C-alpha cells in the first residue's frame, strides 16, 4: 500500500491534486459564501484553477482562452454588475435551511449516481495519463477555419453571428427607455 | 504512475454538482448566474478530459469546449443586461421579487 502511494507521487499528480483542491474548495466557497462579491472572487480562483488543469493536460491554447475570456471578461462583467446593483456587495444573503437542505440532498444524490456510473463504466483510456504532446497552434487554426471534414468554419461563423446578436441584444435590453429617462 | 481518468471525472462531477447546489440554493440572480458558470466549466473539463485520454490525436473535445466558452460569455453578457434591467424596474434582484412575468 505504501509502495503504491510513493509510485503515484509524481510532480504531475501533485499538481493535479493541488489544482483540484483549489477548484473544488473555491467553487464550494463561491456557492456557500453569503456575500456576493466574495463569491465572485472565489469564482475567479476556481476559473484560474480550471485553466491550470487545462495546462496540466497540455492544452495551452484552451488555458489561455479560459483565462482571457472567463477570468478576464466574465468575472469582470459580474463584478461590474454587482457594483451597479446598489448595496449588493455588502448585503448578506439569507437562504432558508430547508431550501439549502433540498439543494444539498439533490446534489449529493446526483454525485453518488454519477460516480457510480463513472466507476462502473470501465472506461478504457487510449493513453495512460495526459501525456500527449501539446496541440500545434497551426492545427487549431486549420480546424477552426477549414471547411473540410472535422473542421469547423460553419460553427465559427455561427458563433461570430451569435456574439454580434448578443452585443446588440445586451445593448437593447440594458438601455433605458425614453419614459424612464 | 499517472492518475487514472476517473480522478479527473470525479473532480468535474463534484464541480458540476457544486454548481447545481448553488443554482438551487441561491436567491439572487447574479449568484445563480455564477453557479451556471461553474456547471459549464465542469462540462468543459469533461470534454477536454475525454478528448485527452480517449482520443489524444483528435481535437473535437477541445474545439467543443472553445465554443462552450464563447457561448457562455455571450450568455453571461445578455443575462447581466437582463439583471440590470430587472434591478432598474424592481430595485431588487432576488428571484422572489420577479413575479411580473407570472401575471
CATH class of the largest domain in chain A: Mainly Alpha
Please give the domain count of chain A: 2
Structural class of chain B: mainly alpha
N→C terminal distance of chain B? 61 Å
The largest sheet of chain A, given as strand count, sense and whether it forms a barrel, is: none
The beta-strand count of chain A equals 0
Q: Total strand count of chain B, please?
A: 0
Question: Could you say which overall geometry of chain B the principal axes of the C-alpha atoms support?
Answer: elongated
What is the beta-strand fraction of chain A?
under 5%
Poorly predicted regions of chain B: none
Q: Name the CATH superfamily assignment of the largest domain in chain A.
A: NADH-ubiquinone/plastoquinone oxidoreductase chain 6, subunit NuoJ
* Largest sheet properties of chain B: none
Topology:
The complex is a heterodimer of chains A (181) and B (103).
Chain A: H1 2-7, H2 11-32, H3 36-56, H4 60-84, H5 97-121, H6 137-145, H7 153-174
Helix pairs in contact in A: 2-3, 3-4
Chain B: H1 5-25, H2 29-54, H3 60-90
Helix pairs in contact in B: 1-2, 2-3
Amino acid at each position: 500500500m505504501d509502495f503504491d502511494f510513493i509510485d503515484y507521487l509524481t510532480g504531475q499528480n501533485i499538481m493535479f491534486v493541488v489544482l483540484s483542491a483549489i477548484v473544488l474548495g473555491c467553487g464550494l466557497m463561491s456557492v456557500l459564501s453569503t456575500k456576493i462579491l466574495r463569491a465572485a472572487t472565489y469564482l475567479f480562483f476556481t476559473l484560474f484553477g480550471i485553466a491550470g488543469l487545462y495546462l496540466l493536460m497540455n492544452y495551452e491554447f484552451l488555458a489561455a482562452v479560459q483565462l482571457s475570456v472567463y477570468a478576464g471578461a466574465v468575472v469582470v462583467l459580474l463584478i461590474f454588475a454587482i457594483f451597479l446593483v446598489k448595496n449588493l456587495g455588502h448585503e448578506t444573503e439569507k437562504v432558508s435551511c430547508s431550501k439549502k437542505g433540498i439543494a444539498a440532498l439533490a446534489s449529493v444524490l446526483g454525485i453518488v449516481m454519477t460516480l457510480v456510473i463513472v466507476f462502473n463504466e470501465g472506461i478504457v483510456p487510449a493513453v495512460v495519463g495526459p501525456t500527449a504532446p501539446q496541440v500545434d497552434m497551426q492545427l487549431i487554426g486549420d480546424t477552426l477555419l477549414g471547411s473540410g471534414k472535422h473542421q469547423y468554419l460553419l460553427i465559427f461563423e455561427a458563433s461570430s453571428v451569435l456574439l454580434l446578436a448578443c452585443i446588440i441584444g445586451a445593448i437593447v435590453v440594458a438601455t433605458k427607455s425614453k419614459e424612464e429617462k | 504512475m499517472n492518475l487514472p481518468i476517473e480522478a479527473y471525472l470525479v473532480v468535474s462531477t463534484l464541480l458540476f454538482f457544486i454548481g447545481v447546489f448553488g443554482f438551487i440554493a441561491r436567491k439572487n440572480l447574479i449568484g445563480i448566474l455564477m453557479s451556471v458558470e461553474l456547471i459549464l466549466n465542469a462540462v468543459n473539463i469533461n470534454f477536454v478530459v475525454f478528448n485527452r485520454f480517449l482520443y489524444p490525436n483528435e481535437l473535437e473535445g477541445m474545439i467543443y469546449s472553445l465554443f462552450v466558452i464563447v457561448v457562455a460569455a455571450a450568455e453571461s453578457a445578455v443575462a447581466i443586461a437582463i439583471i440590470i434591467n430587472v434591478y432598474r424596474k424592481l430595485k431588487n434582484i432576488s428571484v422572489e421579487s420577479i413575479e411580473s412575468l407570472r401575471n
